[in-house]
Amino acid sequence: MARNNDTVRAAVLPAVGAPLEVTGIELPEPGPGQVRVRLAAAGVCHSDLSLTNGTMRVPVPAVLGHEGSGTVVSVGPGVTHVAPGDGVVLNWAPSCGRCHACSLGEVWLCANALVGAGNVYARRSSDGTDLYPGLNVAAFAQETVVPGACVLPAPDGIPLADAALLGCAVLTGYGAVHHSAQVRSGETVAVFGVGGVGLAALQAARIAGASTIVAVDVSPEKEALARAAGATEYVVASDATAREIRGLTGKQGVDVAVECVGRAVTIRAAWESTRRGGRTTVVGIGGKDQQVSFNALEIFHWGRTLSGCVYGNSDPARDLPVLAEHVRAGRLDLGALVTERIGLDGIPAAFENMLAGKGGRAMVMFAD
Fold it and tell me: What is the Cα–Cα distance from 235 to 117, expressed in whole angstroms?
């Protein structure tokens, strides 16, 4: 494996809308406050796809990937919380502790979390082109150099390849249920979208003690996957989704709907699936063209709450130990989220599967 300024392989987004290029990049040695990490695994998240198509903006050319885990290779001056040889989980949105959101304890809304994503961090080997780290950590690479705040010690007793999921999918899905929607024991829950985040949300609803857990997806093939994660009911998405869910809940609707897709039609269906006074949490990231409309009378009549959810409203430093304990106790199955293990060259196909609504989480595996 590469060391120092040797070349490592990475998946580079040359421009918005362009296909990924798997190519060699040159990393510097870590500077003050930085950490170099050899990746063990990196999850392919819908947010990465949103960066490729411009739904979310990123400086380009960029190395994408933000859900990852690995082993510390070397550290720069001033880094004391990890050392070479330590296993770590990447934290793509570290909070600054100084902005207004951080002062309120809402670290998931930190105004400075992605400041580092605008800094050049590597160069393409073939022509010396400057490269940016997509969402701070550039996990679609054999190795990466990140700010020290972007690494958290990996929990004991959890394989590094599984721990990668804790950095995004599980923090987001679990947090949406426990922090944003605050699901209580005995409540009914519907989860829209059975991808990596949706599967984590289903497991979180089960952990919370939800009585009825309805999974909704466009693909009938995902029913077994959803039920294994905790779904008690499965609905194939259609124009009648909200009506079907009300039929499964005594014509009332669910107490909580968690939307993990980011499409206007799905957000609207999630809203209509909740009971009077129910709660709808939107996790999915949609484009500006996805307009959702409500009339003033229905907002009054239904008394529902609609809220956005960023990173599961989670604090990684606080929540990672909690998630790890759920894993060690057997309540949270990380492996059940992964439906495909691939190499860097398999990322474009994983994006296509996401667009087609196939599978759960695809995981990039890096050989030692």
Answer: 39
What residues are paired with 63 via a beta bridge? 12, 133
* Strand boundaries in 49-150, DSSP class E: 62-63, 67-75, 87-90, 122-124, 130-133, 143-147
Beta-carbon contacts of 273 under 8 Å, excluding residues fewer than 6 positions away, are 190, 214, 241, 242, 245, 246, 253, 254, 257
Q: Which two tokens mark 99?
A: 């902005």
Contacts 24+ apart (CB under 8 A), 224-227: 225/194, 225/199, 225/336, 225/339, 225/360, 226/194, 226/198, 226/199, 226/202
Identify the three-state secondary structure at position 91: coil
Q: Please state, in angstroms and rounded to a whole number, the distance separating the CA atoms of residues 264 and 247.
A: 23
Prediction pTM value: 0.94
Phi and psi, residue 149, nearest 5° = -65, -15
User: What's the CA gap between 179 and 289, in Å, rounded?
Assistant: 28
Tens place of pLDDT per residue across the chain (368 aa): 444 457 899 999 999 999 999 999 999 999 999 999 999 999 999 899 999 988 888 899 999 999 999 999 999 999 999 999 999 999 999 999 999 999 999 999 999 998 888 899 999 999 999 999 999 999 999 999 999 999 999 999 999 999 999 999 999 999 999 999 999 999 999 999 999 999 999 999 999 999 999 999 999 999 999 999 999 999 999 999 999 999 999 999 999 999 999 999 999 999 999 999 999 999 999 888 999 999 999 999 999 999 999 999 999 999 999 999 999 999 999 999 999 999 999 999 999 999 888 899 999 999 75
Tell me how far apart the alpha carbons of residues 345 and 184 are, in angstroms, rounded to a whole number: 42
Find, among 280, 85, 75, 325, the residue nearest to 190 by Cα.
Answer: 280
